[in-house]
# Entry
Amino acid sequence: MLNLIPHWIGGQRAERHTDRYGDVFNPATGERTARVGFATSTVVDEAVAVAQKAFQSWRSVSLARRSRILFAFREQIERRKEELARILTLEHGKVLSDALGEVSRGLEVIEFVCGAPQLLKGAFSENVSTDVDSYSIRQPLGVVAGITPFNFPAMVPMWMYPVAIACGNTFVLKPSERDPSSSLFCAELLAAAGLPEGVFNIVQGDKEAVDRILEHPDIRAVSFVGSTPIARTIYQTGTAHGKRVQALGGAKNHMIVLPDADMELAADAAVSAAYGSAGERCMAISVLVAVGSAGDALVPRLRERIRKLRVGPGTEASSEMGPLITRAHRDRVASYVDSGLSDGARLIEDGRTLNVPGHGNGFFLGPCLFDQVRPEMALYRDEIFGPVFSIVRVASYPEAMELLRKNPYANGVALFTNDGGAARRFQNEVEVGMVGINVPIPVPMAYYSFGGWKQSLFGDSHVYGTEGIHFYTRGKVITSRWPDPQHRGVDLGFPQNR
Ligand code: NAD
# Structure
């Protein structure tokens, strides 16, 4: 009997009837390890009703108590991070050290919102008119929802629910159906930290659950992270139903290397950022734009490093890169090697021949590297989301910038150079949301905010940081007179400041 992964509603595991299930695999062995029942609209309605009821009291819970619960949650995660990382590795495939990195970046968001009382402070102006004061407050929206991707099953939800909950909202999470267990583990830790029932809920599922979330009249806001076509639809449908929506999409992150860069540093950074988590990161580098002589300097250095990479099951400490999420995804990624060859790109490393002893059924694909990739090739145009890395050669910095300008994605970008003036010019003119200078994966700290430009983000606000606090609250401005001994009776004129 396969384990059935349930929902989490009203502070407990909840199994509900369904006719539709998804399979969860261990990507390193190819084994089916669990089934997840997909929520019907009725289950989504139940979770939203529970969250709506919980909101009536949670919104009035003092800031001090909310902070303490989040701090206790932080302590729970810190204590049990190894267990959480192991769940991530078993369902996603990423290596344990990478899974621990994911947990620690999620933890930073929880730590940030432990200071929510400071972040939720309004402004006060005394005597805006004689004996009249004006002040602003930020209030929670109500029930809000998060829909998250497979590649960071713990961290991406943590970009959302700790912030929303700290602001006084209640939350319904629809995690990826491919690796749903880590969210349940976190739900249990939230309960152990003292979060009241119904404040955080999980509905497992697919499009049916998402469609109901998007149209549900009691859901005030939706945060989405996933691929660009789905992000666009979520944004359009959610806003058409009157919701506040932030929808983060896909990426094709470029790393530009100028000829004066430190080539050893650039090669280390490129290999780490291209093949870490088997390329299944929205901030992975998938294109290296080599300016002038940088290409010839980098190719042998990249090859040397790639050949030393140890690919294997994520649970083994020696593995640096694990398998891909599913067999279908592995095969789709591998098909880009064929398309690159038929389009005339030069294959430098072919990961299709990789053999991981004892793991013949795992979803492994070794690191692949192409040189002489051109912008019209599918290798360059598509988000591959796997360990297939492309080098595009250009003659000059303006040519590199033109590539970036034409690219529809604009999540992250990196420039490698030793020229401070060039770096300064780049950070000023590049049209990308997150920029690294000699840093390959510039994921902003929890006290900044995360989000791309162009088709990597639909909506106005980034996730977490003060933008997250703003997204999950709305402003109210109050003008008050206490008392008014000099009131002048009825006055139908428009109120003027005196
Ligand atoms: P996905 O778009 O397939 O799925 C994301 C979520 O949407 C999942 O919960 C899924 O169940 C749901 N979903 C899928 N198809 C749907 C449909 N037709 N209608 C409604 N909901 C649907 O993405 P994924 O494969 O899970 O994750 C990888 C993608 O996420 C990549 O494109 C990656 O770049 C992107 N991503 C972006 C960021 C970012 O911050 N911009 C971060 C992580 C991942």
